[in-house]
């Protein structure tokens, strides 16, 4: 397993993260356990801040959908980044963490009137408007509230990033955004410019996730700026903001070759500036919305090995105490992960096994065919790069409580999400009065 961030193997042969022995973390906080490496998370934020903001006056907006908790909001705010939220729940989290609302960007392809009103009341920085229905609804709500909402239109540039089929969002046939090539985008710009209650600031696109080809961003910038030039010719209005979304890929397993953030920044900014100059437009302020490349490599998950089932000549299944409930990605996208035995981290891997989750679902396999030093019940398995789209996509299937999350730094470990209890699972359950009548004893006929 590649060692990410502050990970190292200590003198006892145990995996250490943030100066904490992971076997001690497992003992103290139990498993499954999400471990977030604070120094690594912050470093990833800083890399973006330096490459985009300090160097090019760009704006970096952390995509909260990858991992959002109150503590995460605090770190993101302290690192000077903005926050992309996509729901009332994420917005509420940001609000409760006192995240500066002017740095909040409200996304989503079907925001409800209630959510839009909430965001207007909180005075979020930008509404990322996805469609004409939302544009009209937001305009009306803003007028009724006597305010003007700053908006950015989400467009579909038709650029396909080379990545997993399920997570492409930039192609023309997409539920997200407004299509440029068939004229709907221009029509929506005209509508936005004439809608009272909204102020159009710029355009947005998101061409996919887990992207390794930086040219995809230049290509997207080209399509977006070409469109901006057409809009300028048609209306005399030009965008002062261009948001190229998120998507930079990370290392999960062998074969993944992430691009450095500086290259990403330089490629994107150069494309925007040169194309703007070509069309005689002022270069808009560049915005990006990275999620996975900030939170992903900073997170790991610890599990305890339970049943080990050998089917001779076929496969050895090593079952752990979590699985698709805390990490649905392998089951949903066939995502690959790396792992090691945290309590035997310096032992040589000798056998190929497959890591099974504990859900009643044969697709609940975390890792197929991984070489480990013969796992035994009680061993601690650490899976790396689980910081993005794990906790945020976790679920209670089989009534499994969600794991706790600890933030580790320089030997300190603090709970930032408490482990769910069985009673938490019942918190919203209600039994109608008529079911609570004295239960009749039904005698079974023998
Ligand atoms: N901005 C927008 C508008 C997005 O839709 C996304 C991700 C991002 C930014 C952040 O992209 P990132 O930098 O994290 O790639 N659940 C899937 C990924 C879905 C991507 C959703 N949009 C997965 O686990 O791979």
Uncertain ranges = none
Which structural class should the secondary elements be placed in?
A: alpha/beta
DSSP, total strands: 21
How big a fraction of the residues is strand?
Answer: 15-25%
Gross morphology is: globular
Folded structure, characterized:
The protein contains 12 helices and 21 strands. The radius of gyration is 24 Å and the shape is globular. Helices cover 30% and strands 24% of the residues. Ligand LLP binds next to helix 10 and helix 11.
Task: List the topology elements.
Layout: E1 8-9, E2 15-17, E3 20-21, H1 22-29, E4 33-37, H2 38-56, E5 59-63, H3 70-78, E6 82-85, H4 88-96, E7 104-106, H5 113-122, E8 126-129, H6 132-145, E9 149-156, E10 178-179, H7 184-194, E11 198-204, H8 215-235, E12 241-243, H9 261-278, E13 285-288, H10 292-295, E14 299-311, E15 315-320, H11 329-333, E16 339-341, E17 351-356, E18 365-372, E19 380-384, E20 404-409, E21 412-417, H12 422-426
Parallel strand pairs: 4-20, 5-6, 5-13, 6-7, 7-8, 8-9, 9-10, 9-11, 11-12, 12-13, 15-17
Antiparallel strand pairs: 1-2, 2-3, 4-14, 14-15, 14-19, 16-19, 17-18, 20-21
Helix pairs in contact: 2-9, 5-6, 8-9
What distinguishing features does this structure have?
446 residues; alpha/beta; nine-stranded mixed beta sheet; 30% helix; binds ligand LLP
Task: Describe what is shown at a glance.
The chain has twelve helices and 21 strands. It has 446 residues and is α/β, with parallel strands linked by helices.
């Amino acid at each position: 397993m590649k060692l990410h961030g502050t990970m190292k193997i200590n003198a006892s042969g145990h995996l250490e993260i943030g100066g904490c022995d992971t076997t001690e973390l497992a003992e103290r906080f139990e498993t499954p356990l999400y471990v977030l490496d604070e120094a690594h998370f912050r470093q990833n934020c800083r890399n973006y801040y330096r490459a985009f903001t300090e160097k090019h006056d760009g704006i970096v907006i952390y995509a909260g959908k990858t991992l959002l908790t109150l503590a995460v909001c605090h770190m993101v705010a302290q690192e000077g980044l903005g926050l992309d939220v996509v729901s009332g729940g994420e917005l509420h989290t940001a609000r409760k963490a006192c995240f500066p609302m002017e740095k909040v960007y409200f996304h989503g392809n079907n925001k409800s009137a209630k959510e839009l009103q909430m965001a207007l009341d909180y005075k979020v920085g930008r509404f990322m408007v996805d469609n004409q229905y939302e544009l009209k609804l937001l305009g009306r709500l803003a007028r009724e509230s006597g305010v003007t909402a700053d908006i950015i239109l989400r467009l579909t540039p038709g650029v396909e990033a080379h990545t997993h089929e399920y997570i492409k969002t930039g192609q023309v046939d997409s539920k997200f955004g407004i299509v440029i090539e068939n004229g709907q985008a221009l029509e929506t710009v005209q509508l936005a410019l004439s809608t009272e209650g909204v102020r159009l600031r710029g355009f947005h696109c998101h061409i996919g996730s887990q992207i390794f080809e930086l040219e995809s961003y230049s290509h997207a910038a080209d399509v977006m700026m070409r469109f901006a030039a057409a809009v300028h010719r048609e209306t005399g209005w030009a965008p002062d903001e261009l948001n190229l979304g998120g998507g930079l890929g990370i290392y999960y397993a062998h074969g993944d070759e992430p691009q450095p953030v500086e290259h990403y920044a330089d490629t994107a900014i150069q494309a925007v500036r040169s194309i703007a100059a070509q069309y005689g437009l002022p270069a808009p302020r560049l915005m990006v919305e990275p999620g996975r490349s900030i939170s992903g490599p900073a997170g790991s998950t610890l599990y305890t090995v339970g049943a080990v089932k050998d089917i001779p000549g076929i496969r050895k299944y090593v079952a752990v105490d979590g699985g698709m409930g805390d990490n649905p990605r392998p089951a949903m996208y066939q995502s690959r992960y790396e792992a090691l035995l945290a309590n035997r981290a310096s032992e040589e891997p000798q056998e190929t096994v497959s890591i099974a989750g504990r859900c009643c679902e044969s697709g609940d396999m975390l890792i197929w065919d991984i070489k480990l030093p013969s796992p035994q019940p009680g061993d601690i398995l650490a899976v790396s790069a689980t910081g993005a789209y794990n906790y945020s996509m976790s679920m209670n299937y089989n009534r499994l409580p969600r794991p706790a999350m600890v933030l580790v730094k320089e030997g300190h470990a603090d709970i930032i999400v408490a482990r769910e209890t069985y009673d938490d699972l019942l918190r919203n359950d209600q039994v109608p009065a008529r079911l609570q009548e004295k239960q009749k004893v039904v005698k079974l006929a023998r």
